[in-house]
Fold this protein.
Amino acid sequence: MSKYVVKCTKCGDVQEPYALHCPNDDSLLRTEYSKKQIEPTDMPGIWRYIDWLPVNGIIEEGSGRPVTYKSEGFAKELGLQELYITFNGYWPEKGAFIRTCSFKDLESFPTMQRLIERNEERILVVASAGNTARAFAHVASITGRKLLLIVPEKSMHRLWTINDDTSSICTVTVKGDYYQAIAMAEKIAAKDGFVSEGGARNVARRDGMATVMLDAVLTTGSLPHHYFQAVGSGTGGISAWEASMRLLEDGRFGNNMPRLHLAQNMPCAPLYSLWTGTELTGHCPEEMHDDVLYNRKPPYSAPGGVKDALDDTNGLIYGITNKEAEDAQKLFEETEGIDILPAPGVACAALIKAVETGEINTGDSIVLNITGGGQKRLEEDFTTKKLDVTLTVSPNDPDSEKKILEKVSEFFNLGVY
Ligand SMILES: *Cc1c(COP(=O)(O)O)cnc(C)c1O
């Protein structure tokens, strides 16, 4: 029997393991593992949860995993008795070793491992406003796999690494916003010799992010009442829901489906807007506390997407202002003693709001996903260096595509274009 099958969430048809779509409809595909009870292994980093990752082998080096602990400081401040923090980042004192300081590593490692298992020789193309690019750069430099990053010029400050060898990474900056970078990446990825990783439709990404819920539940011994996370695409929310379904089926962790509390940063909050039916106006992503949370086309209504996840978990979405996020971030950092990225500050603010409005009870068990943190802590132990920019293009330049292809060919000595 194979380790897993990939099935359509709507019609249930089995697809090939690397498929991203069902031929019959628009739904997300989902992994079904033949092992119904997860056994954590002693393998490093995320591979502890390999039972429920769609891979057969591992990348030994460089991966970290979520680490769950019971909050004291922040919990006390909010009057909560059972607040568990699942920390994704660098905090060696807590056993947290994600070296890019965000949970995007949970996506990049399984995705890269699958490309290796598939003998994928094409160049992986990733468009990102920052944390995703950093996570893929990290795993590409460890494995030596060819990576083409396409990022908005303004996001370059997020493109750092602690690794020395970055010779397999070609970085192109676009003088424009995230959407212009994505549009450019889509054009390049459609060419021969390039492959894209699939985003929210990639089960390796989602099952990687699902390890947050796995770590929380295996640490505490039971499914929590509530799960809080800051979202842009909402993929992390879908993943938490999918992990919960598997853990319910596992049978050892209670029969409570955790309620999803997803937090978006106002006014750039399309999921909040879709869910509440309100229209939002603002300058996006400029007006945000953290622009990594901006995604104009989140997988909301596709079967198996964010809407289904909210409906099935009786979940809700919060609209968080910059001020609320800043204050919450500061309070968290002061009471827990670790720096966090701005995005998880939005989740902290949602938790504060939920306590204030009585949406949760003070005795409920809560998992707060800190999606990124410990960058200042990491800088005490490592030297970070910026990735080199190989080429800068303007989205208005009709030759930009050609320029990228030529540069990539030269960079990787392909001699094709
Ligand atoms: C990407 C990201 C998020 C949002 O993730 P989703 O894909 O919407 O689940 C939250 N926090 C950080 C730090 C991120 O990088």
